[in-house]
Amino acid sequence: MTKTSVIFIVSILIMVVGVCGHAQDFSEMTKIRYLIDSIEALEGAKFIRNGREYDAQAASSHLRLKLKAAGARVRTAEDFIKFCASKSSITGKPYFIRFGEGSTIKSEVFFRHKLQKLAENKL
To answer: What's residue 101's pLDDT?
Structure first.
């Protein structure tokens, strides 16, 4: 095998690995967008952060801001839940969601349930 052939094969392998890595990142970003959109779609719900209530639009905007601020630390939907969507990064207090009918759950539980349902629907 010539040196040129080896360089060509290595170049192709690097491109394939890069494309596969990008596809995984795209898939994870799609999941993250789905999670944020699921909050935004909640009618009559309140997102409770540090004792204050926010509507769905404000909650989704806040989560997008946290995602942007987290940068490369968030690589997966699980990372998003852990670092952005579960608790205040300032106070450490958990986030909650109060649904229109009055029940309240931790946002982490809500997002993990949504992610699980998404995975079940993809299989």
So the answer is: 94
